[in-house]
Amino acid sequence: MKYDYLIVGSGLFGATFAYFAKKAGKKCLVIDKRPQLGGNVYCEEVEGINVHKYGAHIFHTSNKEVWNFVNSIVEFNRYTNCPVANYKGKLYNLPFNMNTFCQMWGVTTPEEAKAKIDEQKSEAVAALNGREPQNLEEQALCLVGRDIFYTLIKEYTEKQWGRKCTELPAFIIKRLPVRMVFDNNYFNDKYQGIPVGGYNKLIDGLLEGIDCKTDVDFFNSEYKDWNKFADKLVYTGAIDEYFNYSLGKLDWRTVSFKTRIEDTANFQGNAVVNYTSHEKPYTRVIEHKHFEMFGQEVYDCPKSVVSEEYSTEYKDGMEPYYPVNDERNNQLADQYRKLAANEENVVFGGRLAQYKYYDMAPVIEQVMEYFKK
Ligand code: FAD
Ligand code: UDP
């Protein structure tokens, strides 16, 4: 039997594509080179806790259609991301809001906070002498002033990007929200949460009744001659690999995780703690149970699983996580995209095949739009 679609990759793009194709009466085969389905949202159960194996994932969107759709597959819980920053043992709320300003300066009203920020910003703005901020350090100093920059931004950013703030582009920090209210919600989106029972439930729901094969690498399998098996190909792997790196290799930034079991029910009291000084080599510590357990549930589960996150230089064989946003890579990706546009009956979808950083909701939205057409 010939399939309508061979789908390479069972991440959110591939799984959502298979779901809508099936609904449209099409037959799909999904293959993935990993031993399990779900791509980067896959969770591994350890001590009764869903561990986000490929990085912490928080679903957030303002698109009601996408939100209703994912909730039709699996119910979402009330998790709201409120990361805390630890600078040399002192804790601050994120994103920068009235709680942070109170912890930093002891101010208690928006007016006092604004006066303090304005005073600190004015030094940085004066130093620019009328020109635009040229790098991340100048941008951050003009946005929030020196105290916040040196306590919560400088060293964290240097750890994360492996470069000095003066050598990084200003745009990375442009979107950091500054809030004059006591609101620790990291995202501005209308809807947010984690699937009840974990992300695997979402993937299982999307792929229900669809033929799937794991441990199958497209390029080292019979499926490479996909025409024999399907009318169309949906490819969600790396775009340069599809073209056998003919124009050169794209760079990626990656993260490595050191995960351990802690013999305590509540290790750090929050899902996400950022370490914003060089004192610790990792950028963040994730305590996975707090994504899905609230109140007494935290203590009903006697152990905890925590992951330290280290920003790591990408080498062959590592997991490609974030596209590198510089001129060489942007140009190379454009050239590959031109080649991709000429491939007949092939859909290039998702973050690896498009070489773009996408959150989960936009990936689902893209597939929904494709099927509307
Ligand atoms: P993926 O999930 O990567 O799936 C691609 C799949 O293709 C993989 O399973 C891979 O094994 C398979 N594959 C690749 N090549 C081959 C091949 N040759 N043969 C067979 N199979 C192949 N988004 C949010 O909205 N909120 C968050 O908090 C968030 N946190 C993130 C944290 C990290 C560390 C990262 C990297 C991303 C995060 N994201 C987050 C983004 C989210 O992971 C992506 O939007 C989502 O994974 C995109 O799905 P995808 O299908 O494009 O890619
Ligand atoms: N950032 C920071 N301190 C923090 C958190 C973030 O300075 O505690 C900066 C840092 O430069 C980072 C950027 O804000 O690269 C974006 O951070 P965000 O958490 O939004 O993105 P992610 O780390 O998920 O890519």
From TrEMBL:
Family label: Belongs to the UDP-galactopyranose/dTDP-fucopyranose mutase family.
UDP-galactopyranose mutase C-terminal domain segment(s): 152-357
Protein name stated in the entry: UDP-galactopyranose mutase
Pfam family, one: NAD_binding_8
Listed cofactors: FAD
Keyword annotations: FAD, Flavoprotein, Isomerase
Highest taxon of source: Bacteria
Recorded GO MF terms: flavin adenine dinucleotide binding; UDP-galactopyranose mutase activity
KW Flavoprotein (keyword) present: yes
Entry GO CC: cytosol
NCBIfam families associated with the record: UDP-GALP_mutase (TIGR00031)
